[in-house]
Amino acid sequence: DAGVIQSPRHEVTEMGQEVTLRCKPISGHNSLFWYRQTMMRGLELLIYFNNNVPIDDSGMPEDRFSAKMPNASFSTLKIQPSEPRDSAVYFCASSFSGSSSYNSPLHFGNGTRLTVT
Amino acid sequence: KQEVTQIPAALSVPEGENLVLNCSFTDSAIYNLQWFRQDPGKGLTSLLLIQSSQREQTSGRLNASLDKSSGRSTLYIAASQPGDSATYLCAVRPPSNTGKLIFGQGTTLQVKP
Q1: Phi then psi dihedrals of residue A20, to 5 deg
Q2: Between chains, do A106 and B101 touch, taking CB under 8 Å as contact?
Q3: In contact, A4 and A23? CB cutoff 8 Å
Q4: Residue of A nearest to B95 (CA)
Q5: How far is CA A45 from its chain centroid?
Q6: Is the CB of B100 inside 8 Å of chain A's CB atoms?
Q7: Tens digits of per-residue pLDDT, A23-79?
Q8: Averaged in consecutive runs of 10 residues, what is the pLDDT profile of chain B (113 residues)?
Q9: Residue with the larger pLDDT of the pair B97 and A91
Q10: Smallest Cα–Cα separation from A3: which of A95, A97, A99, A112?
Q11: Contact A56 B100 (CB under 8 A)
Q12: Distance to chain B for A89, nearest Cα, Å
């Protein structure tokens, strides 16, 4: 089991540039989550997908943020244009959610550390 | 709105000591509660998951308890070791079928040799 795979591990970009973060969930998992972690605000849920469908994007801070899940094995989080206040660690996590496996633990990737200058 | 609080924010203990980390939540309607560990520069690793119908779960030197009615959970670490130094987060899962979790801010533990 390779776990949740995120890329890149680190991203440094200039304000105004587009940033794309990528995630490959654990095979067989049907729920995918994007979290953002900062010292000030802790761990915040941005958006989550169930069976590739966005269920709740109320945590997405602004229209500059968008997320897609074109298939069960890939998701992207895009920021366009990026701003210095977007600097944070972005985590992707996955789990299996179903009537018979309701309480599947959440598995996290190692995160992407984004710095916007 | 469900809120999760962890106290203390930081804790430093000598090696070998037993310790308790606290987690409280405002809405007792939860499906489960998870404890995670986060090492610097890493993602979160699930330690224990307690279902709403359970009172506790144990794994090695770790024991987590759940009291839904009072909105509390504790993580007990026995015979602490320097390798236990990390940030510990608890998260509750509200009633839903999608697995969304609500996290506390975490307790950063330092175990001194």
Answers
A1: -125, 120
A2: yes
A3: yes
A4: A102
A5: 9
A6: yes
A7: 999 999 999 999 999 988 888 899 999 999 998 888 898 899 999 999 999 999 999
A8: 92 96 95 93 91 93 96 97 97 76 93 96
A9: A91
A10: A95
A11: yes
A12: 9
